[in-house]
Structure formats: structure tokens, C-alpha cells
Amino acid sequence: MRLTPDQLIFWQYGPVNLNATIVFTWAIMFVLIVGSKLITRRLTTDHQRSRWQNLLEILVTGIEKQIGEVGLRNPRTYLPFLGTLFLFVATASLFTVIPGYEPPTGSLSTTAALALCVLVAVPLFGILDQGLVGYLKSYIEPTVIMLPFNIISEVSRTLALAVRLFGNMMSGAMIIGILLTITPLLFPIVMTLLGLLTGMVQAYIFFILAAVYIAAATQTKEPKTEPI
Amino acid sequence: MTIIAVASIVTAGITTGFGTMGPALAEGRAVGTALTSLAQQPDASATITRTLFVGLAMIESTAIYCFVVSMILIFANPFWNHVITAVVEK
User: Fold this and answer.
1) How many domains does chain A have?
2) Is residue A67 part of a domain?
3) Most Cβ neighbours (<10 Å): which of A80, A126, B30, B35?
4) Mean pLDDT to the nearest integer, A160-164
5) What is the 3-state secondary structure (H, E, C) of B18-87?
6) Best residue in B45, B68, B70, B80 to probe A by mutation, most A CBs within 10 Å?
């Protein structure tokens, strides 16, 4: 039984192969990039605007609001990275309605890559916000004894991000595959709906967790207390 | 050889069995507390709902770890693959 789209290989040359994960990732990239390029060709601020522009505006302002609610100042600086994370995972899950498609996030390679992006981005934003010394000092808060634990927590958070997303996507695809051999019509459709729901929730979770980690790395200064 | 198969199957079953009990109890408590706080402060419902979903996903991930281990034991078992290749080569 095929656990992940990695095992469906289209073309191989020595150690390098072109498997379904890569092809579906390219398809998602193509749709996202070409779609947004086409929609943003003619942006207007009139009341009469195309519905696609409205859709993009809803998405962008919604993501920006969520980033602001997590506690990040200047949501605009983090919007490209976090927004792309959310959009990629969400469309990867949304396209399961297309027959013959398997989400590339059902492969541990894709989710590990996304988690590694977060692993790199958190110190990067932390250093951009607080300087190298200021960011490194956050590792020895509250005491120096916590240094190995802070490092371990960074690594385990990344691992948890990758395995959480992979497990959710893989289990959805696998349950549909198993049910197809048992009751071909009704239950696979219901499980596909459930898979869509969990896919959207997992996309939101990945995005919010990345935002929370970045917020933790950029805001170790004492918050200003409001005078009573 | 059969002991590898027996151990894998039994362990996979027990892993999923125990692995779903803990998170289910924890998620039940989390939703219960969230409903209580929603009843006490309905105007904070957006924050409460969002935090509830994030917390549920974190709890769910431990169940997912158990599920992944079970799947590996059943479908991508390295010990079983090693045994099979040894038998095929004979």
C-alpha cells in the first residue's frame, strides 16, 4: 500500500527521481503564482472590483489580522512568509477534490521542508528585530541552565510541526484509500469532506504556530504596562 | 520470522488503542472548559474559539504520532522488509 506520493515515480535518472510529490508541488506553485499574477494585473480601489480581487483582499487582510492578534507588531513584515505557509498548505489540502490528486503535504519530505523553513525563519526574524546579541541572550533566559532545554525545544518544535502536518494529511489520504476498497460510494465522500476540514484546520494551525514562535523570538522585551 | 509479524501487528493495535485514549480524554476536558468560559464571556468567543482549536491540534498531534508509528509497523516495517528480502534471496 502506498503511504505517500513519494512512491509514485514518473521518471528516474540515477539517484534523482521525479515523483508525484514534486509534480503536485509544482502544480500548486503554478496555480498560486499564475493565479495571483493574473488577478493582480488590474488592481482598483473603486467600488466596482472583480470578485477575484475581493477574494484576495479577504485572504490578505484576514491573514494580516490573525498575525496582529498573535501579538506581532508590524504584521506586514511577516505577512509574506506566514501567508505563503498558510496558502500553500491550504491549497494543497483544498485540491483533494480533484480526482487523481494527492496532497504533497502527505509526504514527510514536504512537511519537513516547511518545518525547516520555520526553523530558519524564527532566528532570522529574531535577529532582525533584536540584533544578534539580543536574540542569543534570549536563549539563556530565565537562567543559564535553561540553555540546552531551549535549544532542544527549538528542535522538537520543528519536528512536531513536520510530523503533525504529515500525520494529518497522510491519515486522511490513507483512510479514503482503505474505505474505497470497502464501501465505494458513500463513506469515501464523507471522509473526503472530513479530510478537507482537517486540512484547512491544519493549515491554520501550522500558520498560527509559526506566528507564535516568531512572536516568542521577537518579543522578549518587557511589555509596556498601561497606567491604571 | 513469525514472531516479528506477530509482534508488529499486536504492537500496532495496542499503540493505536492506547494512543487514542489519552488525547480523547484531554480534548474532552479542553472543550468542556472552553464551553464554560464561552458561557461566562461570550464576547471573547473569537479568541476562545481560536485558542481552543490551536490547543486541540496540539493535543491531537500526540494521537497522530501514535497513528504514524502504527502505520509504519504495518506498512513500512523495516524488520519485516529485511525478513522478506532474506527469504526472497534464498
Assistant:
1) 1
2) yes
3) A126
4) 91
5) HHHHHHHHHHHHHHHHHHHHHHHCHHHHHHHHHHHHHHHHHHHHHHHHHHHHHHHHHHCCHHHHHHHHHH
6) B68
pLDDT band per the 50, 70, 90 thresholds, residue A207: very high
Whether residue A3 and residue B75 make contact (CB cut-off 8 A), yes or no, is yes
Residue ranges of domains in chain B, CATH in brackets: 2-89 (1.20.20.10)
- Structural domain boundaries, residue A208: 5-218
Give the SS3 label for residue A168: helix
Instruction: Classify the C-alpha dihedral A120-A124-A127-A130 as positive or negative.
Output: negative
Average pLDDT over residues A57-68: 93
The interface predicted TM-score of the complex, written ipTM, equals 0.72
pLDDT digits (tens, 9 = 90+) for A79-94: 999 999 999 999 999 9
Which amino acid is it at B39? Answer: A
**Residue A227 pLDDT greater than 60, yes or no:** no
Chain B residue numbers touching A167 (CB-CB < 8 A)? 61, 64-65, 67-68
From chain B, pick out residues whose CB is under 8 angstroms from the CB of A205. Answer: 53-54, 57
